[in-house]
């Protein structure tokens, strides 16, 4: 047998090598249309069920801790945008490859698209809040992509009868070029319309923003002590004592912010308790609220980093919820779960501590929680990193044990317990500002939540430690600003800072990376004095 007597498709395609590029383009268009159709269906079913978002969420859950650190370090809080862009690029390349394969080795391209679609269906069904309907976006998107792929690529096959004439000629002579362009145009149209439709439909989600805007929170029965006049030094570049909501760092695994309507929200308190119960929003609103300033920080914060912020939280004590549920002997952990599948394991003892103001929070700096910070309710526990305590969009508290359960990050390489390490940061002078020789103001913040900061020291060029002046603070759960004047001659200098907590423990010089239980070491900055 010779090449020439094989099935017509393969040799003809070989005679029109230019068709390969067009097939790749057609594949990419069909892939884009499939993803857009999935977005459109997801806008009706559930935003998190689309191929892109369910796939992205699965990637987020699967990344090893070191990669999470690298992502936060390189991209900061833009890491999600980078993830989605990378996924988009990989899928576009895969779809182009499918176009090429479909031309050369049908139906391999269609099968490849099918595999991606099936993976999309499976990961969507595996999401914690998934219902069987979550299979639809990827399934329907997959169907659309396969149909369009086959239709586009079919137009690149030589039209019978014309193929003889065109042997060895440019592909345009042999294939139905106009047909190809028409089908490609239709495919592009499907992609654009489906995407536009999904945007329009998902604007319904701004409905939750509207609900939040209208919400009036109850006044605190127990208001926070006023912020002392001297707590905020109000220096340029120094982090303000109270972090505005719009500047507050955001860390979570959610690719799309969960949209919870308070009227549909409830908190289930269950597990090893004598009196399990479910608390509705209206019931919560009737309970006496408290207000506390608490500084929240992330275990991923590098030395000198800004994944930390101080806010006024309004909420109901978690301690009181637990009292009502009556935990049983032997329990030592509360596993809090969020609507989107995150969980945190917090020591029961910490949450029952009458001296620790742990809240089921509904308000942040005088407003309902912003959507990204956990609307309508989240946990805030002074002294523990967010990953083991600060569950946003919280929907259940399960009293359990550390032996039987673990929070989201623990199997991913992070410590089960996450007490916050003593930390101090230099905010002033900023690297970019020019400083003149003489008395130089150095200032920053320091935190050791729940113990409090008793001293901050700064030294220049490895010399003697100079004690900084501490600004006032409302209490041990909130950070403290500090400032000191240091004489510096012109030239390069290195400045280091260390804090001491109220128990007399000095911040360790030993450097540790964020994983597995938080970064440590003294922050050192280099400055150029004119
Ligand atoms: N539902 C949910 N809650 C979550 C997380 C999350 O990924 N999902 N991340 C936690 C982590 S690691 C931190 S540091 C804090 C950050 O809270 P913020 O975004 O309001 O600053 O939220 C915690 N609560
Ligand atoms: Mo975190």
UniProtKB/TrEMBL annotation:
Claim: Transmembrane is one of the keywords in the record: yes
Domain Oxidoreductase molybdopterin-binding: 256-409
Region described as Disordered: spans on this chain: 501-530
Top-level taxon in the UniProt lineage: Bacteria
Membrane-spanning segments: 20-42, 49-67, 82-101, 108-127, 133-153, 180-201
Ranges of biased composition (kind: Polar residues): 521-530
Protein name (database record): Molybdopterin-dependent oxidoreductase
Source species taxonomy: Bacteria, Bacillati, Actinomycetota, Actinomycetes, Micrococcales
